[in-house]
Write a structure and sequence with these properties.
This protein has helices spanning 24-33, 44-48, 60-69, 73-81, 91-96, 197-213, and strands spanning 6-7, 10-11, 14-18, 37-41, 52-55, 86-89, 97-101, 113-118, 129-135, 143-147, 152-156, 161-166, 175-180, 183-186. The protein is an alpha/beta fold. Strand 1 (6-7) and strand 2 form a beta hairpin.
């Protein structure tokens, strides 16, 4: 690990962004600004070179199919089961779920977070919206969350911590952010807002996990 980015003398964690499909560039920029050494992941060797991973928004069925085509699905599952920190936004949340509601019959997931997620729960592209979300573990004002064909979490298992719900509007009370161990997921897109607090939280999670393993 290099020390090209450094916080309080600690080396920057190497965080990959799964670049099969979706908004990869925005996550890379946010991660670098948040103190990570960020790179794209499309191949097994690239996955093996990172300490943590972001699964971006996009189209979850396409993403799962491409993960199979690129030979990454089983290696991803093994890294997730082995404790690698992973953050999934929107489609990434769906990829991390143990159960996907309203998904395609052949849709695959990483089964990392013990939750049931409803795909496109908030509606189609034209139903995209923005709403305030209070996220446990993040100080300051509510996060201005952007939802684009977003899922929501219908239920969670006993080991999952609900860390964010929509606080206003017709979707008030819906679960849109969860954490289970080193796995974090949001139904919204923090990479589109310029607010780095979610990415900073994940970078610190990755840094702490790397320190513990090392």
């Amino acid at each position: 690990m290099t020390a090209s980015a450094n916080v309080a003398g600690r080396a920057a964690p190497r965080v990959g962004v799964l670049a099969l499909q979706g908004d990869t560039r925005e996550h890379l920029a946010a991660l670098r600004e948040a103190g990570a050494e960020a790179s794209t992941v499309r191949r097994l060797a690239e996955l093996e070179s990172v300490d943590a991973l972001v699964i971006p928004g996009g189209e979850s069925t396409t993403m799962s199919r491409l993960a199979v085509d690129f030979g990454l699905l089983e290696p991803l599952r093994k890294r997730v089961a082995g404790g690698m920190p992973v953050y999934g936004s929107c489609a990434g949340m769906i990829m991390l779920a143990t159960e996907v509601l309203d998904g395609r019959p052949d849709q695959q997931s990483l089964a990392g977070i013990d939750m049931a997620v409803r795909r496109n729960a908030f509606g189609r592209q034209v139903d995209s919206f923005e709403a305030p979300v209070v996220i446990d573990g993040i100080d300051g004002e509510p996060f201005h969350a952007v939802f684009i064909r977003a899922p929501w979490v219908e239920s969670v298992g006993p080991g999952v911590e609900v860390v964010g719900r929509v606080t206003a509007g017709p979707a008030a009370g819906r679960i849109v952010a969860v954490r289970q161990g080193n796995l974090l997921a949001t139904a919204f897109h923090p990479e589109l807002t310029g607010d780095l607090r979610v990415h900073r939280l994940f970078v610190e999670l990755a840094r702490a996990a790397d320190t513990t393993e090392g």
